[in-house]
Amino acid sequence: MVDQLPNRGRELEMLREMGFESMEALFADIPAEVRFKGDLPLPEPQSEEEIISDARRLLGANLALGQRPSFLGAGLYRNYVPASVFQLVTRGEFLTAYTPYQPEVSQGMLQAMWEFQTLVSELVGLPIANLSLYDGSTAAAEALTCAVRVHNRKASQPNTVYISALTPPDKRSVMFNYCQGAEIEIRTIDHLADGSLDLESLAEAAGSCGVYLEQPNPLGVLDENLVRVKEIIGEHTALIVGVQPVSLGVVEAPGHYGADIVVGEGQPLGSPVTGGGPLYGIFACSQPYLRLMPGRIVGRSIDVDGNEAYCLTLSTREQHIRRHRATSNICTNETLIALMGAMHMALLGPDGLRVLAERNLQACQAAKEALQATPGVTLVHDAAHFNEFAIAVPGNAAACLAFLDANGITGGFDLSRWYPEHDDRILVTTTDQTSSADIAALAAQLALWSTHLEVKA
Amino acid sequence: MSHLFDHHGAENTGYSQPQGLSTTGQATVPKGLLRKNPARWPRLSEPEMVRHYTWLSKRNFGIDTGFYPLGSCTMKHNPRVNEVIAQLPGIADIHPHLPEHHLQGLLSIYYEMQHMLEICAGMDQVTLQPVAGAQGEFTAVRCIQEYFRLRGEDQRTKVIVPDSAHGTNPASAAMAGFEIVEIPSREDGRIDLDALAAVADDTTAAMMITNPNTLGLFEADISAASAIVHEAGGQMYYDGANFNAILGITSPGLMGFDAVHFNLHKTFSQPHGGGGPGSGPIGVKAHLAPFLPGPLAARRTPTAEERIQAVDEHWYHWIEPEHSIGKVQQWHGNAGAVIRCWAYYRRYGNGLTTMSEHAVLNANYLRHAIHREAKRIGVDHLFVDGAETEVAKHEFTLSMQPAKEALGISAMDVAKGLLDRGYMAPTVYFPLVVPECMMIEPTETESKDTLDTFAKHFVEVLTVEPEVLHEAPVTTPVRRVDEVYAARNLCLRHPFDDA
Ligand SMILES: Cc1ncc(COP(=O)(O)O)c(C=O)c1O
To answer: Count of CB atoms within 10 A of residue B109's CB?
Structure first.
């Protein structure tokens, strides 16, 4: 029996008080021809105990990344999130609130989000940040449409944006869906053999509305060429940089090398991977983009007594006021996950973030060294990396990953799913959760794979 | 006051971390890319951090702290076991790119949820990828757009919305590239079939509408509206924000809709977290299914090899729709929210109809109780129903226009007065078609006693001297916040001293 309804058993009493004799009377306005006949063909209600036991059984059939050595990332990164974050975020006052439409009783979340905006703004080196978009992919897509709104009038290539040719197809697909309605054309910029951006190819992007690049790039390469991009594309083309936020503990903030908009998948700060959602998209920008940017923003204000108080502001950009002329359709966003991010950032502090970035770099370097020394394996890019790097293996990447899987290792991401022209490449991801033993196991199994193939040949 | 940026502890005050794996980390980063100035983040220890966020939480109102009758938002109780389940490593610590044989549990839950939503909505195929209602709307109109493009009906460039529609409807359709045609509602708040017939033609791609509508009224003419749009060759789109009123009683499929989004975070339960996350799956009829974003969860009989890993005798796998529009989120949507809603659905099963019945019972009862109490103390002349109706569905609207005219008391004044009495205020000034609107949705998880007490407090607010009420709230952490000041003196981040 359903146990969540306080008025069960009091239905008739309530109905009679209204002058009705049955529940049916409340639905008399629904015409018979559109009525469901009979009961919903669904199973009986379950008790809490049955549900949790089914959940354990079903979710237990999934492989948790932490169950064994794992090198799968490709956009999501498994960092340690401190226990206090989980404890605090399940406080009902945060968890069960709606969007803070009544600021007088929502000061807690409003202030927390204003602080989040500050944390993100400082992290990426830009003055303005919103309080989250859905995820890294929609943040990137909305950055492109925002750049067109801002620059289209002066652009010599109107309605045109450029993105890195390495951008993963799934993210490109999101960008395409968000851009096609405004008839925005998305062109690509090439990379050189070492993974760095081809600055000659970039020259074509000058005069367009925006350029989207990632640092580290989708193959983990930290690309020094990005610091030269803004001078090449010029003031009337937005430089949009997608970041892995943890890297910014050591790597320069894009706002400090000319980025106009910084976006990214916030997940590595504050959130578990969670099957790919809920996550939170970071969106930060410089002043000229403020009034045409997407998403909610909190401002600090005062109340009638002149006391410090916070509220949502610049709402005239948003769908509930501007309707079809809004800068975005977003309404529900990812506030709670952003709050987890803020808590994690607060606990790290600037030193903790540097240490965390350093640990991620060290794990990556240790894995690179081990795999470089593994017979049969080659590193694809001679470059600096953060979190992940591409390797080429003997034979076929999918077969190699299946071999690793059968031997107890989640080996990485088959890059032929992104770039079908290479079927022997794997993206190997490390994080602060990667141990030396994990790396040794991967290297040993990859060596076995190579000899296994040699024996077969 | 507690301010995060007032914490200037010594270096490394935060939580301590283990040693890294090697000595060469930073040294691998090209010199020109090394960060010169660290982020000016605060430095605080765990005790201080826990106290700061606990202090903030105490300045925030949630369903757990009190009655939250925010119309259209369905602020019902969220069963706590859902949170426990969402933290299990089998969901919290899984990667969407894991091979199918390592995701059988997730796939089976996705399949079960798709199937359940298909049954409830009367649709042929559901995708769980969209992460919020607005994204569901966008996804569905994109599918409709590609459907017409493939049929060579490129001239269908318009989407019709009633003037009572939620802002996301026109915003989502415009984002997909459609022109918006807004039609007025009738005097009684319902859809105007003549106005619809006048605009529906061979340029119409779709009509977007919610039913019950945003005034909480069931649109009895919905089948006729569907017929008009279909005759013109367009598609009918159901905004599922109010689906919680009709689950198991009628369905968008029965009403003639071709596509629908669900706000799982409203109809089912995913705590709204002060703004999100949500989950906005869509369901479509067979002719639109080939256009859905992929992948979708499917199942077949397991092979002999697969049988050991199979859950419940089935082998689950992903499929890609033939003419898919591609992706609207990079992964498989908000899996964590889907799992919570699955746990919620399991609690109701075929009793979901009871959920809707109680949502409607409570809304009608509260409407009755407010009118009853108003008569009792003689303030019933100060407000009127937002729309004439015998029964409401899961929510109802009141217009404070009479109070405004008689006493200068606005809907906002009443809202602030309710805050002082320990309630979250109803939705105000939406839908735009009702002057001085208050939109009230109690949900099924409130007791009769709570509703009775709220009704008393609601009418009591109307007896407060207008000058006193203009001063409300006075008991809240801050008093009326100056939104104009916020917009004129933009302060969007901590002003560091040197800035
Ligand atoms: C009627 C209606 N439609 C659409 C939406 C948009 O849904 P979401 O906030 O999940 O994007 C809402 C919720 O705010 C709504 O009330």
So the answer is: 30
